[in-house]
Amino acid sequence: MRYVTLGREGPTVSALGFGAMTLAPRVYGDVSEPEATQALLAALDAGVTFVDTADIYGAGHSETLIGRVLRGHRDEVVLATKFGGNSDDQGRLVPGMGRPEYVRRALEASLDRLRTDRVDLYYLHRLDPTTPVEETMGALAELVQAGDIRYVGLSEVSAATLRRACAVHPVTALQTEYSLFHRYPEQDVRPACDELGVGFVAYSPLGRGLLGGTIRGRGSLEEGDWRRGNPRFQEGNLDRNVELADAVAGLAGEVGLPVAQLALAWLVHRGAVPIPGTRRAENARANAAAADVTLDEETVRRLEALVPPGAVAGERGNAAYLANLDT
Prior knowledge:
The protein is an alpha/beta fold. The chain has one domain (3-210, 264-296): Alpha-Beta Barrel (TIM Barrel), CATH 3.20.20. It is 37% helix and 13% strand. An 8-stranded parallel β-sheet has the order 3-4-5-6-7-8-9-10. The chain has a two-stranded antiparallel sheet with strand order 1-2. Helix 2 links the parallel strand 4 (50-52) and strand 5 (78-83). Helix 1 (33-45) packs parallel to helix 9 and helix 5 (159-166) packs parallel to helix 6 (189-196). It is globular, with a radius of gyration of 19 Å. The two termini are 34 Å apart.
């Protein structure tokens, strides 16, 4: 496992982390607690030191499980969690989640579930449209000063919002969706991160599983899997996207890698820290191995030509999901 500094002055983390949304039930289908535990332990055993979760994953279930598993391992891990991502029955963000009083309450609840006295990296999950980002950052800066959190992160914000936030307090990491199947951040968000010294964390680095090599059609998705409502997994769109994934798999075969490892190694090559999630221990170990893969420029060129920006069919989320993003 390789290790990198997150941002200009952030913590040292494994070049590839573990995204713990998949540890919560009713996300990508059912997952048993023993299965989720073994997946997380396998990642840690493979050298992963960066674990990412959020208070909304399984209504706190993911944080609770991580808190239990990390007993005895806490000081070995850079632990990240998020607040401010709750939505109503129509999928609209609940207003007020960026207000200082909410930030403090949310952190206290996460600390309790995680069984820890501090969060290493605390993200605003979604920008609160009712609260200026400067006000939220001020509250987070106070939590850093108090020692309750070590570093501040933002998720799915624009380059303009990132600059406003950094003017109040350093932002250590920006997390957003980024993969061969979603390269939009390359336009302005990634350059802004480089300019400001902000680390870039890529969630859904396998295109929500499309680049994992196992999805062949809607029948590959369990009942209750939220991706059944995602535009990229609808009939027609999914056929096109599986074709693209198969093209990537073909190149992966040529260079002697599993397709998921090739897709993750591309992100590491691009300077991102991907946080793939999985419910299976064997996948966690295989994903971690991607951090040590070195890609030559010819392979990178061919890979990016196979899935150029805009090639993927369908939006990355439905209208309600997209409305909650700061673009």
